[in-house]
Amino acid sequence: MKSTTNTSKRHNHERQAEGVTMSSADFRVESSHPISGRLWPLNGSQQYFFSDRSLAVAMAAKSVTKPSGQEIRVVHVPTGEVVFRKPGRSRAEWSDD
Question: pTM above 0.70?
């Protein structure tokens, strides 16, 4: 029975490494517009998934939308909580007024 448990744990770990399963540590970078940036493997999606919060926030902070200036958020998937928000440029705090 011990070998079955170890084998099961190993397969579960392999699946997590491949991004197949979701855990309570999953984060989604999202926007209502396509997201792009030099660091993305594929530009133009409206959402990307990460298991690491720090990486998700860093990627969101370094990204832009098309059209530019739209909001980008990082959401903790299990709770729906927005843990980071990169505001769009059209908001009052970004204007020169």
Answer: no
